[in-house]
């Protein structure tokens, strides 16, 4: 197994990886009754995996939430980077929207591109009484739109407040540079490094459009009690 694998499965006397996205899409788990729901679009399912949570609208109009339960253990590989490397998308304009548009325009290539990201996420149903709140985060509490931050769990601790300043990120605050205090409440396979974060913008199409275009440079400041800062000589 590759060094980046955090866990694997024991088969006889050998430890190996779990099935990846291609294996599962091609029927590895078929017939086990593990499905929560069926979706109209495999691309929608893929981006639910990337986000780690989703809201499901059923044919009878009812709305339910699903959230992260487990993963197959393979490293996350960004399909946006793949399309840039193949010169299919301009790196200056890459976003969730441009990736979706490319997938829509190239249906015959969808499977191959999605399978590039071997990471596969499993979900569980999650009841959230207040529909204005977000899904249950890795910190076991609902995400609050505009005030919740996903961070690298190997570096940061859930519950810490961060002040994030991103001068070029203006479309979240009516043209004003983004400058907010957020709580570290979630994490994700693609969020790696001390100053890498993902802002939860909310649920629904508009929030998704906002989130899909955030890829801005930002300054991260961890807010800690004065008594703690003394230990660091400040």
Automatic annotation (TrEMBL):
Signal sequence annotation:
none
Q: Which domain of life is it from?
A: Bacteria
Traced from the root, the source organism's taxonomic lineage reads: Bacteria, Pseudomonadati, Pseudomonadota, Alphaproteobacteria, Hyphomicrobiales
A Pfam family of this chain: 3D
Any idea where the Lytic transglycosylase MltA domain is? 1-124
Q: Which SMART domains match?
A: MltA
Q: Which UniProt keywords apply?
A: Cell wall biogenesis/degradation, Lyase
Protein name according to UniProt: peptidoglycan lytic exotransglycosylase
Tell me the organism. Pseudorhizobium tarimense
Show the catalytic activity.
Exolytic cleavage of the (1->4)-beta-glycosidic linkage between N-acetylmuramic acid (MurNAc) and N-acetylglucosamine (GlcNAc) residues in peptidoglycan, from either the reducing or the non-reducing ends of the peptidoglycan chains, with concomitant formation of a 1,6-anhydrobond in the MurNAc residue
Q: Which enzyme class, named as a word? A: lyase
- Look up the EC number in the record and give it: 4.2.2.n1
């Amino acid at each position: 197994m590759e060094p980046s694998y955090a866990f694997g499965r024991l088969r006889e006397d050998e430890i190996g990886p779990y099935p990846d996205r291609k294996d599962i899409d091609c029927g590895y788990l078929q017939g086990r009754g593990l499905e929560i729901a069926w979706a109209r679009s495999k691309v929608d399912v893929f981006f639910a995996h990337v986000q780690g949570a989703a809201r499901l609208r059923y044919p009878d109009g009812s709305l339910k939430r699903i959230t992260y339960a487990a993963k197959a253990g393979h490293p996350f590989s960004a399909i946006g980077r793949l399309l840039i490397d193949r010169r299919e998308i301009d790196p200056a304009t890459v976003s969730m929207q441009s990736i979706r548009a490319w997938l829509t325009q190239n249906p015959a290539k969808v499977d191959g591109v999605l399978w590039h990201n071997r990471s596969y996420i499993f979900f569980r149903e999650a009841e959230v009484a207040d529909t204005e709140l977000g899904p249950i985060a890795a910190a076991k509490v609902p995400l609050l739109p505009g005030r919740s931050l996903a961070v690298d769990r190997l570096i940061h601790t859930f519950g810490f407040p961060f002040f994030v300043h991103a001068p070029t990120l203006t479309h979240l605050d009516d043209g004003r540079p983004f400058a907010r205090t957020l709580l570290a409440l979630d994490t994700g396979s693609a969020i790696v490094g001390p100053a890498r974060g993902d802002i939860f913008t909310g649920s629904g199409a508009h929030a998704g459009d906002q989130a899909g275009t955030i890829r801005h440079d930002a300054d991260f400041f961890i807010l800690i009690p004065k008594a703690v800062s003394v230990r660091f000589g400040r």
